[in-house]
Design brief:
Elements lengths: L5 H85 L4 H14 L5 E7 L5 E7 L3 H13 L1 H8 L4 E2 L5 H11 L3 E9 L2 E10 L8 H86 L7 H32 L7 E3 L1 H18 L3 E6 L6 E3 L1 H17 L6 E9 L2 E8 L6 H4 L12 H5 L6 H11 L4 E6 L3 E9 L3 H17 L1
Parallel strand pairs: 7-9
Antiparallel strand pairs: 1-2, 1-5, 3-4, 4-5, 6-8, 9-10, 10-12, 11-12
């Protein structure tokens, strides 16, 4: 055996230790590196997991966004459809047309597999107006069961809308049982007078369940339908009553025309009668007057004074009678249009002056003051001079008759807008209110002391009124008992051409008749 020197062995051992130390150093470095790598890996893994989570979140959010988009798209479509349908049904006032347009709209604009719209008749019976996706047997079944479900009907009457998206279980069950439709909305059609119908929509498949948005949409649509139907019914009612009114007006007009014809006929007969009787009376009266005059003249021998006096009375009474008959004849002639006014130039101021002159003796007898207050600016008018004079004579004559001594009579005339208004005022006994409305009736005389003592016919005022009306004027009276009376009348200012034109069209009218 070879003996190695100790220093070599020691050297070797030292070397081995060094190698060992180096190895340990190397190993410990490696482990440190591994730990570092492991730490980095764990960090990487954590980051990866976080990224994964985020990716998942993104996908989830995207899905939710899509869903929300889908819902809002659906809602938007629904609102558009609602707006379109509302416009369609609110632009007609015909009930059948409303349902026709709704039928089209449910087919094309609203996306439901099944639709049913019922309407109540006057006897509160349901009637099917629109149906989609239901057989006739199913509709019959629904109607019977719906009418018998008092709970559901009661709730609908109160205005409740139900949908499968939002409905108490029991109610849901009964609706599904009646309509055999899993996804549904049922809403009442209401008006101010209560329920008039029911709208039902639904889907069978789970693919398109109804949402709360759909429920709101159908409920709005149902109230729109209610509004449109109510408008249509109101219109129908108004139309019907206006038709009824029109036919009533036509009927009444016909009755009035017939009554008017009758009155005209009676009036004509009356006028004919008066004029025939007046003529018949006038002839013998003229003879009586003539004979009385012959006797008074003494042509048939001397007559005693007493007989002369009686003959004088016969003469006066005959004159009165002739005056009465003439008045009667004139009234009936003017009334029937047989006497035309003889229009010509006429100055009111002068007419009133003439009347004053004519009646001065009577006024003087009673110390009555007369005032002519005709406005001198009133132009020359187109009037029947003698007839208008007759009116003034009549009115002033009456005023003298019914005014006590020392009274005042005034005649006024003013013009405004081509209309002259005349007023004959006295400070006489006046006329009681109850007599005023009959004052212009023929033969009407107020029962008073003067009338009991003074004779009269009650024809003066009706004649004066007829004459004024024949001039297209109006006559009326105002009076206060014991203070005085005013007779007012109007006369339109017309030109000669106007008068001629009116005459022509009157003649044409008569010939057309
Ligand atoms: P008559 O004078 O012949 O009775 P009228 O037709 O002229 O007929 O008048 C009818 C009635 O109207 C008179 O009887 C009289 O009662 C009443 N009346 C007319 N004018 C006046 C007047 N100015 N004041 C009071 N009463 C009058």
């Amino acid at each position: 055996m070879i003996e190695l020197p100790v220093n070599i062995i020691a050297g070797c051992i030292v070397f081995a230790f060094i190698i060992f130390g180096l190895c340990i150093l190397f190993m410990s470095n490696k482990n440190k590196q591994i730990a570092q790598y492991e730490f980095a890996l764990a960090k990487l893994k954590r980051s990866f997991n976080e990224l994964d989570e985020q990716a998942k979140l993104i996908v989830k959010t995207d899905l939710e966004l899509n869903k929300a988009q889908e819902i809002s798209d659906k809602r938007l479509n629904g609102l558009e459809a609602l707006q379109k349908i509302s416009r369609l049904i609110s632009t007609t006032l015909d009930e059948n047309e409303i349902f026709h347009r709704l039928d089209q709209a449910f087919l094309t604009d609203l996306d439901f597999e099944r639709t049913l719209i019922f309407e109540f008749d006057n006897a509160r019976q349901l009637h099917e107006r629109i149906s989609l996706g239901f057989s006739q047997e199913a509709i019959k079944f629904i109607m019977t069961n719906l009418e018998n479900d008092f709970n559901l009907m009661g709730a609908l009457r109160e205005g409740h809308t139900y949908s499968s998206a939002n409905c108490p279980d029991q109610r849901r069950e009964s609706i599904v049982r009646i309509f055999d439709t899993g996804h549904f909305i049922i809403s009442p059609i209401l008006t101010q007078n209560g329920i008039i119908g029911i709208v039902f929509v639904g889907n069978l498949s789970n693919v398109s369940p109804v949402t709360e948005g759909d429920e709101e949409l159908i409920s709005i649509l149902a109230s729109q339908i209610g509004q449109s139907l109510e408008n249509a019914r109101l219109f129908e009612e108004v139309y019907r009553s206006s038709q009824a009114l029109e036919s009533k007006v036509q009927e009444r007009t016909k009755q009035l025309q017939e009554a008017l014809k009758e009155v005209q006929e009676i009036s004509r007969t009356k006028s004919d009668f008066i004029s025939a009787v007046s003529h018949e009376l006038r002839t013998p009266l003229t003879s009586i007057k003539g004979y009385a005059a012959i006797l008074m003249d003494g042509k048939l021998g001397e007559i005693p004074e007493k007989v002369r006096q009686r003959l004088g009375k016969i003469n006066t009474h005959s004159d009165n009678l002739v005056g009465l008959i003439n008045n009667l004849l004139d009234i009936s002639r003017i009334e029937s249009g047989r006497v035309e006014m003889n229009f010509g130039k006429c100055e009111l101021l002068k007419v009133v002056d003439n009347v004053h002159d004519l009646l001065t003796p009577q006024m003087r007898d009673k110390s009555i003051t007369f005032k002519n207050e005709v406005d001198s600016k009133i132009p020359t008018m187109q009037l029947d001079h003698s007839q208008i004079e007759r009116v003034f004579i009549n009115l002033v004559g009456n005023a003298i008759k019914f005014t006590p001594e020392r009274g005042t009579i005034s005649v006024k005339a003013t013009m405004e807008n081509n209309l002259v208004t005349c007023a004959v005022t006295d400070t006489g006994i006046g006329i009681p209110e109850e007599d005023i409305k009959r004052l212009f009736d023929e033969f009407y005389r107020v029962d008073n002391e003067i009338n009991q003592n003074v004779k009269g016919t009650g024809l003066g005022l009706p004649l004066a009124k007829k004459i004024v009306e024949a001039h297209d004027g109006r006559m009326w009276v105002t009076s206060i008992v014991r203070q005085g009376t005013t007779f007012h009348f109007t006369l339109p200012v017309k030109t000669e051409e106007q008068i001629a034109q009116e005459k022509e069209s009157r003649e044409k009218g008569i010939s057309h008749d």
